[in-house]
Known about the structure:
Blueprint: H1 16-25, H2 34-47, E1 51-55, H3 58-68, E2 76-80, H4 85-92, E3 97-101, E4 123-126, H5 138-148, E5 151-155, E6 163-164, E7 167-168, E8 175-179, E9 192-196, H6 202-209, H7 215-219, H8 239-249, H9 252-275, E10 288-289, E11 295-298, H10 302-314, H11 330-335, E12 336-338, H12 345-349, E13 352-355, H13 363-376
Parallel strand pairs: 2-3, 2-4, 3-12, 4-5, 5-8
Antiparallel strand pairs: 1-9, 6-7, 6-10, 8-9, 11-13
Helix pairs in contact: 1-8, 2-8, 3-4, 3-6, 9-13, 10-13
Pyridoxal-5'-phosphate binds near residues 83, 84 and 192.
Amino acid sequence: MEYKIPFNIPPYTGKEIDYIKLSCEKHKICGDGEFTAKDNEWIEKKTGVTKALLTTSCTHATELSAILADIKEGDEVIMPSFTFVSTANAFVLRGARIVFVDIRPDTMNIDETKIEAAITPKTKAIVPVHYAGVGCEMDTIMDIAKRHNLVVIEDAAQGVMSTYKGKALGSIGDMGNYSFHETKNYSMGEGGALLLRDEKYVNDAIIVREKGTNRTLYQLGKVDKYTWLMPGSSYLPSDMNAAYLYAQFNMAEEINDNRKKSWNKYYQDLMPLKEKGLIELPYVPEECEHNAHMFYIKCKDFEERRGLIKLLTSNAILPASHYVPLHTSTAGLKYSRFNGVDKYTTKESERLLRLPMYYNLKPEEIDEVVGRIKEYYHFS
Ligand SMILES: *Cc1c(COP(=O)(O)O)cnc(C)c1O
């Protein structure tokens, strides 16, 4: 079915093709060309991290993080169950067991007050996921990590341009991971980045990302031959993809403002329904500046959401539910345990509904979506 208002349209500024052409004409289309360097620098400037490394995806950036954190067979990693599979997969691939804790119903982020009870002598890392680009309670999480000597790896896939207490998401923990998949605010088709807050992991990260070799030093003319130094993989994207992303970084503020405008319009226009107790709206803590990655509402329950999805799709509007909690999945049952009670993870995920949100979403389109939601709730 063709949707009049799709759920997502990948961002496109018009300049991408010029930059890709430039990268082709330089005959440097493999990884770590000029545009990759520009993207890395843009992320470093924007976030203040010591080193940013463009990767082939956020999934791969997370795998890279798991290698750098030296995650081994039998280690435990704490994260929310309400997240994308890649958050867990990266650690399961290294033999770790995932320990899920419940989320907060207000932000859908990991409940920081439930983390400490999940820590065992096997715990190695905490992976907060900044859902919808709204920051987790990072001060508390960093304090727990420090007291228990744990590594913090932020899944900031949705958090590019967002901040917590003025600090960029992805720059607060030991490592941070960004996604530039086409469903994210800034895109290169498939892509991501690893952010390293301080020097500690930089050398190893560069080696692991280049198949476990010192090829980067070789290309800089610093060694005569490159050689195999440690286990690694190929996590660097083509410079053509990096060129596409650079066009979007150049318009980052504009894209962000545009999305925020849409988000704010949804929020204002749906407020009367919230005031009548018909739906719930997203909550953004005061210390968080978000990037309008997503606009969601919460229906009363699964059944009510099902009806709304039906009404919207039959009017050529495509909404989207989100993650099936990982602890209930086939792989989840095998590789994880849920610590404590699943009070909110399942219940809240079943009633959350994401509305169409993309760069250059038109006010009339928002009017139409909101109008249909009002129709569903007989609101006038
Ligand atoms: C999109 C996303 C990922 C995966 O990103 P890719 O770049 O597609 O690998 C991981 N975690 C979260 C929370 C995401 O939203």
